[in-house]
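F.,

This is the one I mentioned.
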């Protein structure tokens, strides 16, 4: 009789890869789902709920990511300080001017688990507003969105 076993990965056995994604003129939501799948390791056979089996992701041209419809004026980002009248509401256009990488980080964080593992996976995400990045030594693999 054949013994059936389940592969259980250890953290030391995980070898992550580096991916480069250019989001210029790409739709924000579609790019964010691709980034989240790479960070979580959804396409790997070694997927595990309790280990960071995903890869590192470098995102370039975050200031040029596109959105559909009227989201440029209608999409709001909320930040509440906890004090009375401490709610700050900013539109996508304002956030894109001040912190263009925050638009993608916010969209990807919405798809991550809200645990320590999710924070560890978000640390593997590197977002740059322009085309230049400082991760050439890792030899990232280009991925189309």
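My design for it:
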């Amino acid at each position: 009789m054949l013994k059936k076993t389940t592969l259980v990965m250890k953290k030391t056995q995980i070898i992550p890869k580096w991916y480069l994604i250019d989001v210029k003129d790409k739709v924000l939501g579609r790019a964010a789902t691709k980034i989240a799948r790479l960070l979580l390791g959804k396409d790997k056979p070694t997927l595990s709920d309790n280990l960071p089996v995903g890869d590192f992701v470098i995102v370039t041209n975050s200031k040029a990511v596109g959105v559909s419809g009227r989201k440029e004026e209608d999409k709001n980002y909320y930040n509440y300080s906890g004090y009375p009248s401490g709610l700050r509401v900013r539109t996508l256009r304002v956030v894109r001017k001040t912190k263009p990488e925050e638009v993608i980080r916010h969209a990807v964080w919405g798809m991550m688990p809200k645990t320590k593992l999710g924070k560890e996976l978000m640390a593997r995400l590197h977002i740059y507003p322009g085309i230049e990045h400082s991760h050439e030594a890792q030899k990232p693999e280009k991925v189309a969105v």
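The radius of gyration is 18 Å.

Talk soon.
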